[in-house]
């Protein structure tokens, strides 16, 4: 199975991914997580992407297509993948379709995490993450047992540099201008399923499961 998760910052893509990934034995490929890891490790890719990400703009199509192409080849990904935050431009979608076609497969579903912009600032500014596992918390909606500490490992949580109200504005602008058209592109192929992403996390999970079993 190949699933694409499309939605604005804070719509719940990263929260739903680990649950669905385990249930369907899929590989979770999140371009944002991969880029943040590259920035932290100061790799040549990370050095190129850092400033653009901190401004809330999209990094170049070539960079992200390159990392996805590389990641899809891993043997652990043979059962399929969740593409979280990719493709995010129509050019990325065209490239992805080409890559999948070469492997004799295609995208099965694109989940559109539909949510009103007004809800996103509170979600984004209250987010805390455990970087190595990708676990996500929220001060109000999903608080950890101990403030600032991961429930499972006891390690410290961190906040993302781009999770400010100010940077969110640019991220939303990029979403509406560059990423929304990806939904139109896949609607024409009949693979888009809309999700009510404003519902509580558990209800959103049920909606994703319904789409996947249909
Ligand atoms: P990326 O990391 O993909 O960030 P994003 O798209 O802005 O999405 P987020 O991770 O902010 O949102 P999410 O939907 O995962 O929310 P979450 O589930 O954590 O990208 C970062 C940057 O990398 C980009 O700006 C760009 O520069 C670059 N980049 C990445 N991919 C790229 C690409 N393909 N092309 C070019 N550039 C690229 O939830 C948020 C919070 O809300 C959490 O605290 C969570 O606990 C809470 N929450 C979640 N669901 C619910 C719910 N249902 N109810 C209440 N609270 C909830
Ligand atoms: Zn995310």
UniProtKB/TrEMBL annotation:
Keyword Ribonucleoprotein belongs to the record: no
One term under GO cellular component: cytoplasm
EC number: 2.7.4.3
Catalyzed reactions per annotation: AMP + ATP = 2 ADP
Keywords in alphabetical order: Kinase, Membrane, Nucleotide-binding, Transferase, Transmembrane, Transmembrane helix
Highest taxon of the lineage: Eukaryota
Domain Adenylate kinase active site lid: residue ranges: 127-162
Enzyme class, first EC level, given as a word: transferase
Keyword Transport attributed: no
Molecular function per GO: AMP kinase activity; ATP binding
Family named by the database record: Belongs to the adenylate kinase family.
Reported function: Catalyzes the reversible transfer of the terminal phosphate group between ATP and AMP. Plays an important role in cellular energy homeostasis and in adenine nucleotide metabolism.
Subunit note: Monomer.
Identification of the protein by name: adenylate kinase
Protein species of origin: Lactuca sativa
Residues of the full protein shown: 105 to 318 of 318
């Amino acid at each position: 199975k190949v699933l694409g998760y499309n939605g604005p910052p804070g719509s719940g893509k990263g929260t739903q991914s680990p649950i669905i990934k385990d249930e369907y034995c899929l590989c979770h490929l999140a371009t944002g997580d991969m880029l943040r890891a590259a920035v932290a490790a100061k790799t040549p890719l990370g050095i190129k992407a850092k400033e653009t990400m901190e401004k809330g703009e999209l990094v170049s199509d070539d960079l992200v297509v390159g990392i996805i192409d590389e990641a899809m080849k891993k043997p652990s990904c043979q059962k399929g993948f969740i593409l979280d935050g990719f493709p995010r431009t129509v050019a990325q979608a065209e490239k992805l379709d080409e890559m999948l076609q070469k492997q004799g497969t295609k995208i099965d579903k694109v989940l559109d995490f539909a949510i009103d912009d007004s809800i996103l600032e509170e979600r984004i500014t209250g987010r805390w993450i455990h970087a190595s596992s990708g676990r996500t918390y929220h001060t109000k909606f999903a608080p950890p047992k101990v403030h600032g500490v991961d429930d499972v490992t006891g390690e410290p949580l961190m906040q993302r540099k781009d999770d400010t109200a100010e940077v969110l504005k640019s991220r939303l602008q990029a979403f509406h201008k560059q990423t929304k058209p990806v939904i139109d592109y896949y609607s024409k192929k009949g693979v888009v399923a809309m999700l009510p992403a404003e519902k509580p996390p558990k209800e959103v999970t049920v909606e994703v499961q319904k789409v996947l079993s249909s």
